[in-house]
């Protein structure tokens, strides 16, 4: 199975049909007409709905240029697999349509300590990548794009601070080359060095891919990108 996002979009264009609609919706018009709509996947389990939604996405975007990544299902969520940097370092991330930031745990964050969670793959080390940029500067425009970022304590680098239902993460905003399928794209992402995440909540993944509408989400960063 693959996770696919179209590389050039307009606001409001459906990108990834991962939203699971209610099994039925009821509408009442001003004339008193009552309509009940039943979702075509109403009798499916949550996992089956997710699989069918992903299949429809692949079919609808098959004719377009797209970025893609292999995904696998773990318990109740999809995890995408992709390399970071050059030479590539493998990473895995939860696909999250409800958040914006794309992030992964980085060197300096050790799963043996209390500041990080355990992950299945080695922790990403920017010092080992030829395409890794220095942390985004505090005064850079990217540092003011979302609520997830603000100046770090040193007043120079752009810090990442955000929370989820499972806990909080802290780190720096960096820029790096990511590979999705055969496409290489340069993205801003959270290089996380401290977390307070409920153990097991990420099912061994190293981070999260946010697909929300915020400026730092993967969807938004790919908006004006044309791939060849």
Automatic annotation (TrEMBL):
<dbReference type="InterPro" id="IPR021109">
    <property type="entry name" value="Peptidase_aspartic_dom_sf"/>
</dbReference>
<feature type="domain" description="Peptidase A1">
    <location>
        <begin position="78"/>
        <end position="228"/>
    </location>
</feature>
<protein>
    <recommendedName>
        <fullName>Peptidase A1 domain-containing protein</fullName>
    </recommendedName>
</protein>
<dbReference type="GO" id="GO:0005576">
    <property type="term" value="C:extracellular region"/>
</dbReference>
<keyword id="KW-0378">Hydrolase</keyword>
<keyword id="KW-0645">Protease</keyword>
<comment type="similarity">
    <text>Belongs to the peptidase A1 family.</text>
</comment>
<dbReference type="Pfam" id="PF14543">
    <property type="entry name" value="TAXi_N"/>
</dbReference>
<dbReference type="InterPro" id="IPR032861">
    <property type="entry name" value="TAXi_N"/>
</dbReference>
<dbReference type="InterPro" id="IPR033121">
    <property type="entry name" value="PEPTIDASE_A1"/>
</dbReference>
<dbReference type="GO" id="GO:0008233">
    <property type="term" value="F:peptidase activity"/>
</dbReference>
<dbReference type="InterPro" id="IPR051708">
    <property type="entry name" value="Plant_Aspart_Prot_A1"/>
</dbReference>
<dbReference type="GO" id="GO:0006508">
    <property type="term" value="P:proteolysis"/>
</dbReference>
């Amino acid at each position: 199975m693959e996770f696919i996002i179209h590389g050039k979009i307009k606001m409001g264009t459906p990108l990834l049909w991962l939203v699971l609609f209610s099994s039925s919706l009821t509408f009442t018009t001003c004339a008193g007409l009552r309509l009940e709509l039943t979702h075509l996947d109403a009798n499916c389990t949550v996992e089956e709905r997710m699989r069918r939604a992903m299949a429809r996405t692949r079919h609808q975007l098959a004719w377009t240029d797209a970025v893609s990544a292999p995904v696998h299902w773990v318990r109740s969520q999809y995890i995408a697999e992709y390399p970071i940097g050059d030479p590539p370092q493998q990473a895995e991330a939860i696909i999250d349509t409800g958040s914006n930031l794309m992030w992964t745990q980085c060197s300096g964050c050790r799963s043996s300590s209390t500041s990080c969670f355990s992950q299945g793959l080695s922790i990403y080390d920017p010092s080992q990548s030829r395409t890794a940029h220095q942390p985004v500067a505090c005064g850079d425009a990217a540092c003011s794009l979302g609520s997830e970022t603000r100046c770090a304590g040193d007043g120079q680098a752009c810090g990442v601070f955000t929370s989820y239902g499972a806990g909080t993460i802290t780190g720096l905003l960096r820029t790096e080359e990511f590979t999705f399928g055969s496409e290489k794209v340069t993205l801003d992402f959270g290089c996380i060095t401290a977390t307070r995440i409920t153990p097991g909540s990420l099912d061994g993944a190293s981070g999260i891919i946010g697909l929300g509408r915020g400026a730092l989400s993967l969807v938004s960063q790919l908006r004006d990108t044309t791939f060849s």
